[in-house]
Sequence to fold (506 residues):
Amino acid sequence: MNKEETITKLKEIIKPYINNVEAFENLTEATDFIVDLNINSANLIDIMLDLEDAFVIDIENQDMEKMLDVKAALEIIEIKLANK
Amino acid sequence: MDRRVVITGLGVVAPNGVGLAEFTHSIKNGISGIKHNAELERLRFCCQISGTPNISPELISNYFTELELRNFNSSGILYGVIAGIDAWKDAGLLINNDNEPDWDSGTIFGTGNSGVDKVREGIYKIDAFQTRRLGSTAVAQTMNSGVSAYLGGKLGLGNQVSTNSSACTTGTESILMAFERIKSGQAKRILAGSTNDSGPYIWAAFDAMNVCTYKHNNAPESGSRPMSESASGFVPGSGAGALVLENLESALLRGARIYAEILGGNINSGGQRGTGTMTAQNPTAVQKCITNAIVNSGILANNIDAISGHLTATSKDSLEVKNWSNALNRKGIDFPYINSLKSIVGHCLAGAGSIECVATVLQLKQGFIFPNTNCIDLHPEITAIIDESRIPQKLIKKDLNLIIKASFGFGDVNGCVVFKKY
Fold:
């Protein structure tokens, strides 16, 4: 899976949780889940669970803590997929 | 100075009607919401019939966002939110989309438990070492105050947002707690109500106590028989009722329609002393609760037009009628009209009091007494106290001024409220 495909899949997953449509439409690697997309911090847990299901990976708690923006999420997904 | 308290909005999610129009039609015409329940049969319950509200996914989507519905599995919150939002809109109130909470408005919305199906889901996950997969909403769905928390957020309420719990008295208690708060000037309006989950995991413990009927599995609509000699236990039910209580001044100021006034009431307990136990009411306490409610409302027992009973369709119905008769000091033909909604919805447990209060207020506003069903064979212990004509089995259209309503619950707790036509 290339980076663009991963971003498309990631966007699909976070879409139900976002509260800033404009920032979502202009999403880049620098987009922060809470600051830019106004996602309720409690929902980050749900996003992690959805990512695990969609990519069939396990995300550890310490990875979860780092996953605050798109860039970090992409990196962690990439590593997890490579280690599968 | 004490404020007068009126009812300006109603909402209901009942087994025989979701929404005021359908519910009103059903209670006037004795239409039952009790049906055979395939899940209870599969699980080999003694009682395989129930009163469960019928709610379509389309209706649900009017009250909850797609995100809220992800992994949502709490029927009590579902019923409570629908009834509560309906009551709010029925009162002509807007949903507060401001950044500022509505400091003058709150909710006291009771329940016996919350999200039992969600709890069950969670337990399976926990035991399979998947605690982290519970998701972020498991707490909100299973905390007792989930229903008031959901409502508070949807309406932007800034006054008290709380859930009360007192078994089958819960709904009547929530109304009285809201009444006191408005009367004392601490809130302008309170969304009062109560709800109860549906399903086997709620009803099982009652089935195990043999307090539900097992004799009507093939004829569900005849199963709930309050005041009947052949009453053989209650039919489990669920649902929610909601009432917007408001101080009179605020209601008049915004030109709201007023359904009825609440004059007063009383909450007490028999302390599980005398013949009172965890599961049976102390009759002295029941009578005291009724007489206190009458005194505190400033009315005379002789002026009461009708009673909305608790009357669950167990062997205790005769004792309840006796308690009413003693407390009001009225009997025979002089006794007020009395009816029980449970004959057509079953016993909606923590939701019962508020659903029955909605029915009571509709009777006052529209001038009718809904018929009792399934009591052609009235219990002789009841007809020994009051005249048969006091237990209408057909719809009566009549201007009514005062209706008194009581609910009783496990723990030997009682609640009684007096409604007056406005």
Summary: DSSP finds 16 helices and 15 strands in chain B.
